[in-house]
Amino acid sequence: MFGFVFIAALAALAFAGINFYGVKRMNQGTDRMIEISGAIREGADAFIRHEYGLIAKIAVLIALALGIVVSWYTGVAFILGAVMSGSAGWIGMKIATISNVRVSNKARETGSIGETLKVAFRGGSVMGLSVGGFSLFGLALIYLVFGRFFGQLGQEQLLIKANWLGITFIPFTMTVSGYALGCSVIAMFDRVGGGIFTKAADMGADLVGKTEAHIPEDDPRNPATIADNVGDNVGDVAGLGADLLESYVGALISSVVLASYMFYTNLTAASGSISYDLVSHLLVYPLIFAGIGTISCMAGIAFLLVKKISDHPHHELNLSTWISALLTLIGTGIFTWFYFSGQDIAALGFRLGALSPWFAAVAGIITGILIGQLAEHSTSFDFLPTKQISEASREGTALNITQGLAVGMKSVFFPVFVLAGAAICANAIAGLYGVAMAAIGMLSFVISTVSVDTYGPIADNAGGISEMSKLDPSVRIITDQLDAVGNTTAAIGKGFAIGSAGLAALSLFASFLYAQAMPNDTDGYTLNLNFINTMTLAGGLVGAALPFLFSGILIEAVAKAARKMVQEVRRQFREIPGILTGEAKPDYTTCITISSAGALAEMKLPALISVLTPLAGGFLLGADFVGGMLIGTTLSAIMLALFTANSGGAWDNAKKYIEQGHHGGKGSDAHSASVVGDTVGDPLKDTVGPSLDILIKIMAVISLITVSVFQDYNLVTWISSLIK
Amino acid sequence: MSEMHYYLTLFPTESLIASMLDPDKFGAYMTTSSKRGSHERLVFIELDGGFSGDFDWNYAKERCVPHRNGEPKHSVYLSVYRVLEKIPFSAFRRMYLTTPDGRTLVLDKSDFPADRPGKPYHVYQELCPVQPLVVSSLAPKAFGEYIVKGDSKISLPALCYCDLKVIDLDDLEHTGHIGPMYDHNLGHLIECIAAVTERGKVTKTLDRTFAGNFRFQIVKDGFALVNKKEKAWYAMPSEEELTSKYYDWSRSAMII
After folding, report:
1. Fewer CB in 10 Å around end: N or C, chain B?
2. Given an 8 Å threshold on Cβ–Cβ distance, is B215 in contact with A667?
3. pLDDT tens-digit profile of A352-383?
4. pTM of the predicted protein model
């Protein structure tokens, strides 16, 4: 079975390699196109180099701390996770900066939407396949090296053991948690850093270039325009890839940790105990499930790349995704049936027989689709909510903002309702393991969703290059059409990320409670979190407030970097005469440096908050406080993530609707109001929203890893012992 | 050595300027000069100079010379008040429309368009020498003639104006790119329309000065200049032509 997982992971990476070089071989177009794309590529490369240099230092420190306090293998797994996540983000960014100019050139050479879509999607698929391939390859390595070679998956090691500090845990759960934490920390830096970079550049380009100097979008006379395009690659591609890789791994390991603790805490149960054979199945099942998803997605991608493409990009992309999803469902369904048939699954709470975990995964897939559709309903201008924002813009900026807030807040309810239903449903079908499977199901065709999500920024960049290279307007029309489809698919992708984070957090939370089991808790273990307990309630309150603090810091960071960018663009217009007449070239490099420096300086604090808060809470106030905090953070972060993603998306599309010639169109008062709304929403949807789901999982995994330490060693316990 | 040009600026201010810049550069200089940072829209016409005794052409020749560093002289103002009325239309060459970011569109002189059946009213933006927004029952040519004829109290010796796009007032959603034209005082617009279509008024002032909100995207057919003896018409290219031939300008003018 492991062989299959390795083959799936390596096949995905090989397919990514083929597509990478397939795109790279294509013609880049005119000298001007090569020059502009070169500037974007250099800017993105320079930022990622600096960012990864900084992250590497922090990652080594965290790995050392984990190695000393928990175990050496947790530290090593952390590094492996960081490397896998970093590699996926880096390769995604590379292919995006290679593809953008080739997409533009394909549109120039062929004038065909279908042919151009193929290049953009081939580029996007490199990111998707890298996310799936690297995450699965890393996990397979963990299973092979630590699980098999070091015997952590053996019956004698699936027990709670004590380390040299007396801290107790099941070794394999610490290994996979370390791996997930490595992925999460990189994702946090990539998302936060990329988010700050891209929004600072975007706001600088818009607020001065467009609003003050009246320069159109992607005009080469705008000093911040190259930085804006660099931002698309480091934020929307590298950040997104690392984010979804983290979500995917988080969902996979949550089921593994849960299964391990369920096994251990039922070792000597009089009835309904879980056999070693069954837990072995449960531990490997998510990987094979993911492997089948990987192969299915490869088929879906290949289908789109080899078929004759129509001029309806949305239809083609959907078709590829649905083929991937359908094959995943069929493949995993058949596999699940054979895999669990004959197993004694009663103790797990599997109520629909051998197919129970599969049904739970299907519930997750349906939930993901529903959340995505609800996100589209709230953010697309084909539907009433966004149209209402456009209409309210006629009455001025204040009402645009007010209506956008209303749409964003209302948009939270139904996705959360669906998520709650999914949790209940998955739990009813297959117990807590089913909840974890629902999260895995939601992300089982992540390769396809990431491929489609990455295609969007590539098309966006291609439009920028077409504009800056003065290509024929027909080229821009093609890239604009492709970009418009990308906006919709991005909203759906965010829905999957947030939804899966909620479900994964729930199973990680259950693992957190299980992880407080003592070595003698082998005769059944009741998960218990009492919200009447003051400590838990206090933790809940603090936890619920945390995403607001985190979001505020992020928005402030974007604003700070954006202000510097605004000042720089103004300075260039003032001090470099001839920029607007085209006689002088703007200083693009300084703008890239400002965004880069702003992102690198500001990304540390939010990332540290996510890592340090559960530690501080745990070592000061104990496990009950952290339990409450995790619940509080998860609840409020999900609400905030949905609110920020949907309100930001709705503001953006409300502006786009006006820019299509509605309510006065460009230059109208409604347009001015919608530009302000879009600017307010920008850091919400592209910096805050995507970072919140990572916050939830980092906090959950950190708490899971350290709970066995701080449940015994904390300030409250120490003071209590002194008083006694 | 750069050639001397004479420009009649019609919008936002009326003036006669001598310059060593060709029209494109003159438009960009006037709208985006970093020192002023005005970012205004500019409408101007290039003229054949030396046509009458009203302007000091010798002053222009003396002052409009290259700077010591060899840079061409950007602008020498010859007159800033009641300029249009003193210029024979035979001196008009082409008209130029410059966007706030300095991109210029050239319009050629052509015949006045024939009256076409349509709505029973027109909306005009007067650009020079005064700048009100007016609703009228008269077609473009007749409107200009009416204003300069002198029969009414509201009369001017010469006028530059353009006809504006009229939208379906029952559908304020699918408007196209028309800028802030219909964002304010819609009730008054409806009253003005009623005044010219139902109560027989020839013209009705919608806004005494609308210059700040004027956008090229709202211009319908073109720009007209009239005085008691002469008329000139500069036709605006169609939206398709603007998109295909003048893409950059159209984006800057927010037409696409």
Report:
1. N
2. yes
3. 989 999 999 999 989 988 888 898 899 888 89
4. 0.91
